[in-house]
Amino acid sequence: MTPESAGLSGVDVAIVGGGAAGVLVATRLLADPACRLRVAIIEPAAELARGAAYATGQPAHLLNVTAGRMSAFAEDPGHFVRFLSGGDAGTAEALSTSFAPRREYGRYLRETLCAQPRHPALQWLRERVTDIERRDGDNLLTLASGATLAARAVVLAVGNAPRRIPAARLHGAVRLADAWDYEGVAAIPAEADVCIIGSGLSMVDAVLSLVHGGHRGRIRVLSRHGLMPLAHAESGGTDTAPIDALLALGLRGRLRLIRAWTQAATAAGEPWQWVFDRLRPHGQALWRSLAHVEQERFLRHLVRYWDIHRHRIAPQVAHTLEALRAGARLEVLAGRLQSVEAREDGGIDVRYRPRHADGECSIRADWLVNATGVETHIDLQPDTLLGALRARGRVLPGPHGIGIASEEPGRVIDARGQPDPTLLVLGAMRIGTLWESLAIPELRGQAQALADHLRATLDGRVPPKS
After folding, report:
1. I want to staple 55 with a disulfide (CB 3.0 to 4.6 A). Which of 5, 50, 66, 303 is the partner?
2. Which of 152, 108, 148 is nearest to 127 (CA)?
3. pLDDT digits (tens, 9 = 90+) for 39-53
4. What's the rounded Cα separation, in Å, for the pair 341 and 79?
5. Which helix (DSSP H) or strand (DSSP E) does residue 297 occupy?
6. How many CB atoms lie within 10 A of CB 278?
7. Closest to 226 (Cα-Cα) out of 346, 331, 371
8. What confidence tens digit (pLDDT) does each residue in 123-172 have?
């Protein structure tokens, strides 16, 4: 499939974003041969399904979930492993508990999209959407080229935006790379000392990019808590947790009960990870059943501890990190970044306030890597499409100011507090409402619900004129 750039005509559904979320929606819409909806994806990247997670070409960047849990179709759990195995049943069974390279998952999503019956009818516009306004009952999308596209419904599949280090903390010509710029990080000189800001999954990617590029210098990681993602255990513990017992409790009670479950699991010879695997399908229910003030307390005090237990990494990746720490190549520090100043020799001085200590400390390095993760506050993205929609009153921040306010199956809430039946969202921007909204199990479920909704409300009507 090649992108189109001229002769735009009106469509029924415009999907803004061609990463995993957008491709999953398009896959569902194009799977039904009887569906007559005209569908377009607007995505400027050179390939579809290459959002932040799957843009890497490095084999060391692995999925954080075993392949057997990564099917694009909930009703066909073995779909991805059959793709990896080429259809060989024995190989597929062995691969189901492996952590596949993320680049392979991006290829899988693209080939799955291309295999749908109505794929030839899909328009792919290699453009960037800068604004969406209401016009005569339709949505008029303005593209960066100046072209416009009319659509009866728009799906915002904008994915993850990187959080930026505040410009006020950077002084001078700081050598700075973004963790999601995989090639840029890998190209940092092998002997350079590197300071990485942030210790989550983006940091893991940055360290692996450096190692992939033959890096030999020292790596220091600075984050407020100094906590890194924990490792997966071997697969098991597939039974479900007694969720009702948790739903009846407040945040403090839930924390105590989960600790008791992990202690009991350990005493029984089970990995503590199995407790979190049993909780995994219930993440949205656990979040939505908390009172607003309890959610705030979670975000203020517990979110980092939850993240390192919930969002784990492949065992072989954890082993790489531990080997680097054991060899004094990698050091993790807990503290709050104060400033980064460029030195005359081209290096940098990173000043930070240590956690639970007075005064300031300094790190001398050659390069700074931003691994602070995902920006979830749309009011901190004024120069993006989300900022334009916010200015028009078409979107509101979600609960606690994170993501976009929405209701099922993804209808966006506008500035009047009303759901917009023509503007839909899935994935990262539903985090404030759903919390668990980033991973493939949630994305594929939301994609199916949106496709069903769009077919039910739009199919059979005449598309708009551009």
Report:
1. 50
2. 148
3. 999 999 999 999 989
4. 50
5. helix 292-297
6. 18
7. 331
8. 999 999 999 999 888 999 999 999 999 999 999 999 888 899 999 999 99
Segments in 13-164 forming alpha helices (H): 20-30, 79-85, 89-95, 102-114
pLDDT of residue 165: 95
Among 176, 156, 157, which Cα is nearest to 372's? 176
Helix, strand or coil, per DSSP, at residue 195: strand
117 preceded by a cis bond (ω within 30 of 0): no
Q: Is 116 helix (H, G, I), strand (E, B) or coil?
A: coil
Average pLDDT, the chain: 93
Strands (E) in 157-204, as ranges, are: 161-162, 170-171, 176-178, 194-197
In the Cβ-directed half-sphere of 102, how many Cα atoms lie within 13 Å?
Answer: 24
Token code pair at residue 107: 């290829």
217: number of Cβ within 10 Å: 16
Which residue, 16, 6, 14, is CA-closest to 40? Answer: 14
Amino acid at 318: A
What is the enclosing helix (H) or strand (E) of 34? none
Tokens 């769009």, residue?
A: 454
